[in-house]
């Protein structure tokens, strides 16, 4: 599979709808680095969905340009562009007349994959999104909402796209399903790293999932930073209130350990210390560090130590650039 | 009944004619109505004028319409066929539109969003999802076409209408009139039942398995 530079660059992108008097998106410039999980966060009407849908050209910008790698997306055939981008929406939009396997197979079929390759890919994807393979021949109406969204995710990932656009994908799920889908999303991103652009109005969801968060308000980009920077240095009162920056204890349970750890290449691993998985939240790290015998925690990615967390690193919540 | 049995060779020939004119008319009508309905769904502004014109056409009595077509298509099967196709357009185009309208717009957005061309969306998503409603329209159109085709015998299109018109011309041949009428009615019932079964079948099946992609 070809591996191009998968960064998305928005340059002075604006969108004015024929009906609206003020722009839905107003001069937004930002770069989604290759392999990053970027969340577009904002209240409804902030322009986040419009911004997202301009990437796969369901909407065209009124002015400005969007590039994927070095290529302006307007220079690509629109169907070619879209087939390289996974697309997941809140309403899921599974094809009701097709079985699970045929839903997943749609894009590979459009790309002309042969039967055997598609069949193998379907098995792989069902495993990846944690659905039993027997579900292949079921229809969407026979699945629960959470299962349908897993199929939606599998369909989006089917042709191994370089980008994933997700528009409030877990917005319709109940709290428990939503949490499990979020966990799975993190796990998935760890395994098959994609450049992800994810829209939500749910601050907790943004803090849990994002490598970087772009806060939008009235079509303008207010702040674009890593989650812990957003919490510790909100750009203005709007962001401060949005992320509830004053509630530090709550924030700790939203931040992942890996977001505050110092990577191992910067510090030596402590000799004998408690261990914690990289995906755990900082609140757990804190409760371990509050024990008298623990001054540092070794952060593990599977069996591999990747970083160190101390009380100081939590206090600083210093996010090294490019750590994600 | 006796008439049908004793004259079976002639009756069966007329029945065959009736069936083939009906099938030809419906096939042609579908070939026109599917793309036309799809276009009207895409370009809503065209709906009012075209549906209006088709509706107007539907109010013209069948004999009058056939007579009007004779200068253009000649006296014979062709004029009758054109009349039948025109009549079925109203029913079919409307049902194609209704069928397309019942599709969840988010499904269509996703279809576009993942990279289907407009024709691929039409063939792989819209047609299969609208098919039950389209078949319902085809069923209504089939019954109408079978009935109106009987009138076509007056203009040399053959079919079961021939029996009825002969029965009227040869005073007192009620057996012919009844035989023709009964067969037309049976044919309409059969078409109605058959298409209803087809409708039920497509509601249950994944039609994309059947359609070549």
List keywords for this structure.
heterodimer, A: 324 residues, alpha/beta, six-stranded mixed beta sheet, four-stranded antiparallel beta sheet, 13 helices, 35% helix, disordered C terminus, B: 213 residues, mainly alpha
Summarize the structure.
The complex is a heterodimer of chains A (324) and B (213). With 324 residues, chain A is α/β, with parallel strands linked by helices. Chain A is built from 13 helices and 14 strands.
Describe this structure in words.
With 324 residues, chain A is of the alpha/beta class. Chain A has helices spanning 48-55, 78-83, 100-110, 115-128, 145-157, 175-191, 203-209, 227-232, 237-243, 248-254, 257-260, 282-289, 311-316, and strands at residues 8-15, 25-32, 37-41, 63-68, 71-72, 85-89, 163-167, 195-200, 212-217, 220-225, 262-263, 275-277, 296-301, 304-310. In chain A, strand 13 and strand 14 (304-310) form a beta hairpin. Chain B is an all-alpha fold. Chain B has helices at 2-6, 8-42, 47-59, 62-73, 77-101, 105-113, 118-151, 161-169, 174-204, 207-210. In chain B, helix 3 (47-59) crosses helix 5. The longest helix of chain B is centred in the N-terminal third of the chain and has 35 residues, at 8-42. The radius of gyration of chain B is 20 Å and the shape is elongated. Chain A binds chain B through residues 56, 58, 79-83, 85-87, 89, 91-99, 102, 106-107, 109-110, 139, 155-156, and chain B through 104, 106-107, 109-117, 120, 124-125, 128-129, 206-209, 213.
Task: Report the C-alpha radius of gyration of chain B, rounded.
Answer: 20 Å
Low-confidence stretches of chain A: 318-324
Low-confidence stretches of chain B: 209-213
Q: Please tell me what the overall shape of chain B is.
A: elongated
Distance between the termini of chain A: 23 Å
Per the principal axes of the C-alpha atoms, what is the gross shape of chain A?
globular
Structural class, judged by helices and strands of chain B? mainly alpha
